[in-house]
Design a protein that fits this description.
33% helix, 2 domains, 7 strands, alpha+beta
């Protein structure tokens, strides 16, 4: 376990994109009792899917085997400290490995899609704004499905997180384009600007042409 992680309690791994777009991974160390870390993590909260059902999963030092792996779903994840503080992030899904090392629980979350902090940092693309809008999109799609959350995640689990990420960008772009001109106020402008920048970064780095199935296509089976 590296010194930086031991001191801070968590570490977001650098984005694969330049300029930076979100983060490429997250490392967390969880102890069974308070320590002197900068952010003293008590629990990691993540949405998981077991192949049939969605679960709001709480990962703590006391509740796991020596080593476990979780399939994390699209959605919000959060770190909870012993002081009651919360640090929230948003992912498009990925794999969480948890392993006990020297008495502490070491967790590493990796994803093929960006991970966004929900509180944007100065000088970064506004991933928090984009994540908020995607959360709204998910809620709209969820109510259309008979099994609601279980059905939503059952369908999305078939796709790679990067494909889900691109689908969300496409659907969000369509959603913004449908907003009437007289309703395009300050928040709209901020979201549109950040989305445009995010798409440009992905196109430049990955050679994406901007054409992918939208979220509704994946959910209907049209993106398979």
């Amino acid at each position: 376990m590296d010194d930086r992680l031991t001191t801070l309690g968590y570490e977001f791994l650098p984005s694969k994109y330049s300029p930076g777009l979100g983060f490429s991974g997250l490392k967390v160390v969880i102890s069974g009792k308070p320590t002197e870390r900068f952010f003293d993590v008590k629990a990691l909260h993540v949405p998981t899917f077991d192949g049939r059902f969605y679960h709001p999963t709480q990962v703590t030092r006391h509740e796991l085997e020596t080593e476990e792996t979780f399939q994390v779903c699209l959605g919000e994840m959060s770190l909870e400290s012993f002081k009651g503080e919360h640090l929230r992030a948003f992912s498009f899904g990925g794999i969480l490995h948890a392993k006990i090392e020297k008495g502490d629980l070491f967790c590493e979350f990796t994803s093929k899609a960006p991970i966004f902090k929900l509180k944007d940092e100065p000088g970064t693309v506004g991933g928090g704004l984009i994540a908020d809008e995607i959360t709204d999109l998910l809620a709209e799609q969820q109510v259309k499905l008979a099994g609601h959350k279980d059905e939503l995640y059952s369908r999305l689990a078939k796709f790679d997180p990067y494909q889900v990420f691109l689908a969300c960008l496409v659907s969000l772009q369509k959603r913004l384009a449908a907003v009437p001109m007289n309703m395009r106020r300050e928040r709209y402008q901020k979201v549109a600007s950040n989305l445009k920048r995010a798409i440009e970064i992905v196109q430049a780095a990955d050679g994406w042409d901007g054409k992918s199935p939208g979220l509704e296509d994946l959910l209907s089976g049209g993106g398979a």
